[in-house]
Specification:
The protein has 3 helices and 15 strands. The chain is mostly beta strands. The strands form 3 sheets. The chain has a 7-stranded antiparallel β-sheet, covered by helices on one side. It binds 2-acetamido-2-deoxy-beta-D-glucopyranose (3 copies). One 2-acetamido-2-deoxy-beta-D-glucopyranose binds next to helix 1.
């Protein structure tokens, strides 16, 4: 069972992506530098990229719960474009707190969403902005075009090859089709959305986990899981951000209320 689930891989885990170009965003291209200003790279203490995320507040990053490798191991990098190259636009911040969703279930991948509170704010500038989010429970019709972006992963051997951000455009696949016996056979919950090309060859992959699926300019999905990468039978499965909009707002607000209260600083930023 555990082994089987391992094979139905979280996109964080190296698996059968090796047939594809470096296990990165499949079938996409590099957007122009710093054009996707809210995407962040989560890096290990050794500077290895392992997941993506989106800046939703100068102190908060939204990512997938399965990207939780422990706070001490993590660095958030905003304003990046080519990993492993110093472009002068990068901003680094260590997490202060990780808040995975309380309903996150690692065997079903349900509620695969996490907020990261940063220890220092990210400055918003020409290279960094906040990600717009959908309203609570806003749905998307099948066929709606979206875009997923990420850095995929660098080599296992640890050598940091400079890698530029990649992006690919994909249509939403209906939950009905994605949950059917010809696809994920009942494993799709209401907290997930699927996106992928009917002919395959376009997908998020290993290392893109936690990164944004953007539709109509808003982050509707977080790269969560799948079965291989770019297989037409198995679209990519994303956390449905609109199901968690209230949780996101409440988590950010309640943390502030608590901090402000303990610092005796009501009403101030
Ligand atoms: C995860 O989901 C499975 C299947 O529904 C359930 O059996 C299990 O108890 C859940 N685990 C947690 C930690 O909620
Ligand atoms: C669905 O989940 C079950 C139990 O976790 C697993 O055995 C099965 O392989 C999954 N099927 C697909 C198509 O993901
Ligand atoms: C997917 O199928 C399973 C099994 O039929 C069902 O329990 C589940 O509710 C379905 N998911 C959605 C979002 O309808």
């Amino acid at each position: 069972m555990a082994m089987l689930l391992f094979l139905v891989l979280l996109k964080l885990v190296p698996a059968n992506c090796l047939d594809f170009v470096q296990g990165r965003i499949v079938g996409g291209y590099s957007p122009s530098p710093n054009s996707i200003k809210y995407i962040v790279s989560l890096q290990s203490s050794k500077g290895q990229h392992f997941c993506g995320g989106s800046l939703v507040h100068k102190y908060w990053v939204l990512t997938a719960a399965h990207c939780n490798i422990g706070m001490d191991q993590m660095m958030v990098v905003a304003g990046d474009y080519t990993l492993g190259a110093n472009e002068g636009t990068e901003q680094y911040s260590k997490p202060l707190m990780l808040i995975p969703h309380p309903l996150y279930n690692r065997s079903t991948n349900n509620a695969d969403i996490m907020l990261i509170k940063l220890s220092a704010p990210i400055e918003l500038n020409r290279y960094v902005s906040l990600a717009p989010l959908p309203k609570q429970n806003t749905g998307l019709l099948a066929g709606r075009m979206c875009r997923v972006s990420g850095w995929g992963s660098t080599s296992h051997s640890g050598g940091l090859i400079p890698l530029t951000l990649r992006t690919v455009r994909l249509p939403i696949v209906s939950t009905f089709k994605c949950n059917s016996s010809s696809s994920f056979s009942g494993n799709i919950t209401a907290n997930m959305i699927c996106a992928g090309s009917s002919t395959g060859g376009k997908d998020a992959c290993k290392g893109d986990s936690g990164g944004p699926l953007v539709c109509d300019g808003r982050v509707y999905g977080l790269v969560s899981w799948g079965n291989g990468c770019g297989d037409p039978r198995f679209p990519g499965v994303y956390t449905a951000v609109s199901r968690f909009r209230r949780w996101i707002d409440q988590t950010i607000y309640s943390t502030y209320a608590r901090c402000l209260k303990s610092a005796g600083l009501f009403g101030k930023d």
